[in-house]
Amino acid sequence: MAGVIKKFFIASMFMWMAPIIILYGFNHDLIPGVSHLSPHSLTLLSGFVAVISVNIVIAFYIYMAMKEPSDKHEPDAKFVSEAKASVSQLTGKAEDSSQSLKKEE
C-alpha cells in the first residue's frame, strides 16, 4: 500500500511541477528558439506543451498502475463472506417476490 501512495504522490508532484516549469521556461526565454515568437504564439505554444506534459504524466501513471502485479492484492475474507451472504439474501428475496407476483397473476 505504501508503494501505491508513493507512486501517486510522485505522479501528483509531476502533474503540478511539469506545466509550471514549462510555462516558466517559455515566459523567461529559457527554451531556445522561442524568443522570436509573438506573445500570442508563445502563450498558445507554452499552454499546449504544458497540457501535453500533464497528459504524459497521467499516461505514465496509468502504465505504472497497469504494470503492478494483481496477485499481491488479496481480498479480505470477512468482507467477501459478508458480501456473498448479502447477495444470496437479496437473490432469495427477489425469487420470493417473483413467485408471489406469479401467484397473483
From TrEMBL:
TM region(s), chain numbering: 7-26, 41-63
Keyword field: Cytoplasmic vesicle, Endoplasmic reticulum, Membrane, Transmembrane, Transmembrane helix
Membrane topology value: Multi-pass membrane protein
Family designation: Belongs to the VMA21 family.
Main location: endoplasmic reticulum
Pfam families (alphabetical): VMA21
Protein name: Vacuolar ATPase assembly integral membrane protein VMA21 homolog
Annotated function: Required for the assembly of the V0 complex of the vacuolar ATPase (V-ATPase) in the endoplasmic reticulum.
Subcellular location: Endoplasmic reticulum membrane; Endoplasmic reticulum-Golgi intermediate compartment membrane; Cytoplasmic vesicle, COPII-coated vesicle membrane
